[in-house]
Amino acid sequence: MAGGSGTKVVQITNIAPQATKDQMQTFLGMVGKIDEIRLYPTIRDVSCPVVSRICYVKYFESSCVAVAQHLTNTVFIDRAVIVIPVQGGVIPDEYKALEMAANGTLVPGLHSFNVPSKLPPEVVNRIDGMIPNQVVKTIDPKLEENG
């Protein structure tokens, strides 16, 4: 499978905060039959404003993943979404998905939830900048300390 490595799961990021699960189902259902869909955060609380949402879709057929990737940069509501295959085919729970997104500790879709990081524990990745000029920076405190 080109790009998808046999996975049936895709991660969709840069989703407008007002997007609903039904809208995502309609948008991504054009690609193929959906087995499971999760849109995070699930609870909408006015005291905790949401800047962006994240969605995971599991298709019945792995061939849908390559097709779904073609939706990357499609403007949905008011944002260009990013669709990336999830290696390992596992949809993370809400806490894990939001924690990873908030910490900027992964490049969307490139993380396998069953494989530990190969980086030393003190090395971290973070996302810097504002959309659409975000970049992933890897920081090693020991290297920074030594210039």
Give a quick set of tags describing it:
147 residues, two-stranded antiparallel ribbon, 4 helices, Nucleotide-bd_a/b_plait_sf
Care to describe what's here?
By secondary structure, this protein is α+β, with helices and mostly antiparallel strands. The protein has a domain at 9-103: 2-Layer Sandwich (Alpha-Beta Plaits). Helix content is 21%, strand content 27%. It has helices at 21-29, 63-68, 94-103, 141-146, and strands at residues 9-15, 34-40, 53-59, 75-76, 79-80, 82-85, 124-128, 135-139. The strands form 3 sheets. Strands 2-3-1-6 form a 4-stranded antiparallel beta sheet, with helices on both faces. A hairpin with a 2-residue loop joins strand 4 and strand 5 (79-80). The longest helix is centred in the last third of the chain and has 10 residues, at 94-103. The radius of gyration is 16 Å and the shape is globular. Mean pLDDT is 81; it is low at 108-115. GO terms for molecular function: RNA binding. This is RRM domain-containing protein.
Strand segment tally: 8
For the record, give the distance between the C-alpha atoms at the N and C termini, rounded to a whole number. Answer: 43 Å
Question: Could you list the spans in which at least 5 consecutive residues all have pLDDT below 50?
Answer: 108-115
- CATH level-3 fold name of the domain at 9-103: Alpha-Beta Plaits
Please identify which CATH superfamily of the domain at 9-103 we are dealing with: RRM (RNA recognition motif) domain
The 3D shape can be described as globular
Helical run tally: 4
Average the pLDDT over all residues and give the rounded result.
Answer: 81
Described by strand count, sense and barrel closure, the largest sheet is: 4 strands, antiparallel
Helix content: 10-25%
Tell me the structural class.
Answer: alpha+beta
CATH architecture of the domain at 9-103: 2-Layer Sandwich
Which CATH class of the domain at 9-103 is shown? Alpha Beta
